[in-house]
């Protein structure tokens, strides 16, 4: 099938590029360089070793280093523990997942029956590892979709790629007419669409429209018809959020996935932890220990032994193997009884191949953040489901893709987007609960055909409630500060090629100090914990870094610093702040805007603010692009234009 052949080809291109970037960073770089780059720790010392639930060992390491060195290790990353000892002859290694990491300490979970002996000798080091498993699972899923003889898989596949029309029950055929009192009209429409869908339904959720609220309500109602559903998303963070929201609504949930990648609050709801709490778990542990003992005893017989010892050794191995089978059967019994008694199983898309649910079938799979999910990853849970509900927004961030060719070839186009185009089964949520209407309106016109409405609670909310400030510019919901003609040229970071603009950052800082000072005077309560939040966004990493340094050094900002996050656009996806600044950076004679051409990404940045959005940029450079010219026209139409000259001198 042409569609899938192409998909496999693109996935392979992406994998090769990912691997190439990884190899450049790791394999082709000597250890001393890798250490400098922060992708290897060497040497490390073992601080402690613990046995976890299931077949897991946790080892805590400390890095031996004279310098304060940064690193790129994060919780959830795959790493390789290696032994560089010359006695060993060849390099030995095992892989694991980071469960905790600080500047010079980390804890890693290893899924092994036993730790290799070399862990106790020689000099150890840790490398960041390329995650090939994810690609393998995606590739296998796509191949299975093509070759499947399961009539339901074939049917669902044909609907999703647009060869067959999606079917819906008539409203009158719904068991009951559902209307959730706490949901608004379009949210209720989306829920009903889901209840009627026989193949696929789509919630299209523009920023702040309560996509998660709607999805949780839909899951609850679906559970009145179906015993159990699978709820997934591409990232662990999104799955954790959904798990929390479902638990808060009284739904029983088991979170499946590597415990090292699950948020700590949710560990009690993880399958591993539930297994450990099961009444038969003690017995399971005992059987496993006994099996281990037999294996160890059998292994003690060395080379020169007679017939009798040989027989004994054989018996011990047989006993160990019998006990292992018993343990396996008991574990399966425990897992099945836990899974059979939960309403929802949550996992990431790729995590739904987890050994405990690999062969389980589900009536419905919900896929959240589907606008960011690679098509091959979606097929993993789809293969085990009768029907699918996608939720997302294809007008916000697309999936992250490393290969330019794979992206150009179409790997960025999600299944979510393809279904919207081919089946037109999406219901868009139309009331947003985040932005003042002036903040919402530009994005609304450009991306949502002007169909969005601001809820009464936010339509005119302002930063300052104070009457004296009502008409003031500082209290306007949108400001654009134009740096055109100020000579604020963009600069390029030599090592990374990322752009930054120190003069623009300077203006941003001045504006924020002015605003923060007014805030402190007018609304002292706002600065109490949890009352107020601010975000500073730049599409360029180099500018993010520069802004962070600038803010850290500034004495006037100590009070507001805890409420001000500075990050890239991707770092703010799904989040909101009372005040948001965007530093556009690009300022050049040629009108080159690079990254900023990605208007979907800019849509995310422009829709994070609740009460005030300040955009700083060069209209001369930006205005050469149609999208930004529309933005500048919009700025004029609401009287939000200011010149950076006001802050100069
Ligand atoms: N029907 C509703 N009535 C009142 N408030 C609502 C309603 N639906 C959602 N909200 C509010 O809107 C906000 C965003 O909702 P929610 O967290 O479900 O959205 P999300 O899907 O996570 O975010 P986004 O819409 O940006 O993807 C929340 O504060 C929520 O309480």
From TrEMBL:
It is found in: Cytoplasm. InterPro entries: AAA+_ATPase, Coronavir_polyprotein_1ab, DNA2/NAM7-like_C, DNA2/NAM7_AAA_11, P-loop_NTPase, SF1_C_Upf1, SMUBP-2_HCS1_1B. Residues 284-311 form a coiled coil. GO terms for molecular function: 5'-3' DNA helicase activity; ATP binding; DNA binding; hydrolase activity; RNA binding. Keywords: ATP-binding, Coiled coil, Cytoplasm, DNA-binding, Helicase, Hydrolase, Nucleotide-binding. Its EC number is 3.6.4.12. It comes from the Bacteria. Residues 197-425 form the AAA+ ATPase domain. CDD domains: SF1_C_Upf1. One of its GO terms (cellular component) is chromosome. Pfam families: AAA_11 (PF13086), AAA_12 (PF13087), SMUBP-2_HCS1_1B (PF21138). Belongs to the DNA2/NAM7 helicase family. PANTHER family: DNA-BINDING PROTEIN SMUBP-2, DNA2/NAM7 HELICASE FAMILY MEMBER. This is DNA helicase.
């Amino acid at each position: 099938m042409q569609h899938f052949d192409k998909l496999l080809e693109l996935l392979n291109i992406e994998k090769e590029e990912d691997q190439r970037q990884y190899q450049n960073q790791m394999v082709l770089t000597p250890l001393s360089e890798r250490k400098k780059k922060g992708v290897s720790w060497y040497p490390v010392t073992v601080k402690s070793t613990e046995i976890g639930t299931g077949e897991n060992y946790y080892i805590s390491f400390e890095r031996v280093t004279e310098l304060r060195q940064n690193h790129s290790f994060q919780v959830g990353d795959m790493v390789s523990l290696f032994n560089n000892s010359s006695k060993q002859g060849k390099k030995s290694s095992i892989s694991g997942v980071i469960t905790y990491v600080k500047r010079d300490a980390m804890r890693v979970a290893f899924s092994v029956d036993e730790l290799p002996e070399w862990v106790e000798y020689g000099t150890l080091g840790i490398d960041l590892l390329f995650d090939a498993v994810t690609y393998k699972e995606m590739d296998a899923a796509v191949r299975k979709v093509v070759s499947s003889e399961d009539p339901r898989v074939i049917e669902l596949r044909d609907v999703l790629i647009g060869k067959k029309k999606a079917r819906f029950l008539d409203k009158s055929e719904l068991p009951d007419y559902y209307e959730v009192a706490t949901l608004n009209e379009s949210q209720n429409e989306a829920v009903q669409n889901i209840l009627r869908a026989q193949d696929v339904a789509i919630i299209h959720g523009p920023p702040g429209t309560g996509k998660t609220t709607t999805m949780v309500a839909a899951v609850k109602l679906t559970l009145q018809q179906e015993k159990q559903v699978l709820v997934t998303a591409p990232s662990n963070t999104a799955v954790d959020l959904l798990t929390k929201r479902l638990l808060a609504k009284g739904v029983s949930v088991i979170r499946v996935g590597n415990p090292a990648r699950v948020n700590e609050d949710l560990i009690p709801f993880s399958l591993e932890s539930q297994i450990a709490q099961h009444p038969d778990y003690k017995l399971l542990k005992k059987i496993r220990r006994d099996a281990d003992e037999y294996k160890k005893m059998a292994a003690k017989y060395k080379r020169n032994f007679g017939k009798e010892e040989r027989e004994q050794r054989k018996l011990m191995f047989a006993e160990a193997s019998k006990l292992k089978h018993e343990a396996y059967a008991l574990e399966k019994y425990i897992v099945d009884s836990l899974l059979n008694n939960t309403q929802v199983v949550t996992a990431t898309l790729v995590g739904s191949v987890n050994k405990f649910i690999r062969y389980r079938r589900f009536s419905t799979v919900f896929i959240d953040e589907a606008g960011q999910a690679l098509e091959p990853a979606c097929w993993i849970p789809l293969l085990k489901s009768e029907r699918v509900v996608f939720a997302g927004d294809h007008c916000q961030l697309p999936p992250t893709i490393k290969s330019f060719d794979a992206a150009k070839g179409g790997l960025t186009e999600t299944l979510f987007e393809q279904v919207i185009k081919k089946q037109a089964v999406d219901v868009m949520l139309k009331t947003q609960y985040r932005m003042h209407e002036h903040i919402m309106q530009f994005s609304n016109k450009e991306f949502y055909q002007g169909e969005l409405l601001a809820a009464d609670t936010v339509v005119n909310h302002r930063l300052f409630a104070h009457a004296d400030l009502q008409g003031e510019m500082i209290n306007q919901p949108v400001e654009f500060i134009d740096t055109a003609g100020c000579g604020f040229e963009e600069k390029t970071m030599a090592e990374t090629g990322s752009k930054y603009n120190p003069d623009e950052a300077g203006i941003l800082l001045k504006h924020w100090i002015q605003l923060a000072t007014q805030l402190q005077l007018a609304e002292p309560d706002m600065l109490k914990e949890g009352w107020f939040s601010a975000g500073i966004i730049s599409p360029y990493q180099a500018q993010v870094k520069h802004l962070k340094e600038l803010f850290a050094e500034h004495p006037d900002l100590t009070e507001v610093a805890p409420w001000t996050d500075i990050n890239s656009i991707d770092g703010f996806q799904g989040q909101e702040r009372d005040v948001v600044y965007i530093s556009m950076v690009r300022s050049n004679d040629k009108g080159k805007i690079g990254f900023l051409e990605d208007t979907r990404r800019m849509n995310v940045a422009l829709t994070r603010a609740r009460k005030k959005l300040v955009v700083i940029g060069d209209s001369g450079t930006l205005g050469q692009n149609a999208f930004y010219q529309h933005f500048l026209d919009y700025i004029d139409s609401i009287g939000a234009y200011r010149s950076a000259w006001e802050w100069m001198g």
